[in-house]
Here is the input.
Amino acid sequence: MKLVTFVHLNKTRVGAITDKYIYPLPFSSMNDLIISGSYIERLVAMAGNPIAIQEAEILAPIPEPRQDIICLGINFLEHAVESARYKKEAFSGDRPYAVYFSKRVDQCLPDKGTLPDYRNMVDSLDYECELAVIIGKDAKNVTADKAFDHVFGYTIMNDISARNLQSRHKQWYFGKSLDGFAPMGPCIVTEDEFTRPPVLSIKSFVNGELRQNSTTDLLIFDIPHVIEELSQGMTLKAGTIIAMGTPAGAGMGFQPPKFLKKGDVVECVIENIGVLTTYID
Here is the structure.
């Protein structure tokens, strides 16, 4: 099932989406739907009368995350290599532990959203296509073999980054947390639609040029590992978003770097989820 948050007749709602229609569901937000623990069969029975897609404004599937987004840094080997090269650091090829950081989000930018203009403070705007995992029920002390039982579904996130702010402040939080820096969408696809683990192509394009091209089976630390490790020390509450890291081909990975500029169009594409498009102001 594909789920969206949308506006219809000046009211924000959630619903299941098909090629032509949205079927409203009786929840005030996507977070409320997730927390309800409703099974797919029950959601189908709850669906209301269809609304034509062209009559609705599609928002990010979770416009306002309950908490900061949990992100994995350098979780594809080749991205680790290009990241070290950009920072002029040596990379040994050894990645024994996952790198976690958080991304603060005011509101997630929807599919076909426009990024705010930060040219007065950002001179190295970058993109990162990532698979985002949505936790479906509180996870504490979850073992890897039970991890997928706690996954609600998946969406696409573009982890927009200001590389100069990252370098200046010697950490990633500020440079990845400016307003608008979390494009997400176009929908959430529920976990039952995928094999375990999901092996999906992941790509990004800038102005039609292929930049990133990989598959999610190349993650250094996979979804079960991440859920098991994090849940040993923290409760991953229902609605938690975990961005699993980006493959090689981010703008900083090119020589010279290919950072984003006004008028650029970024498309993040993940198999069986869709296309997340972001316009650069």
User: Anything to note?
Assistant: Residues 72 and 244 are 5 Å apart (CA to CA). The two ends are 33 Å apart (CA to CA). The first strand starts at residue 2 and ends at 8.
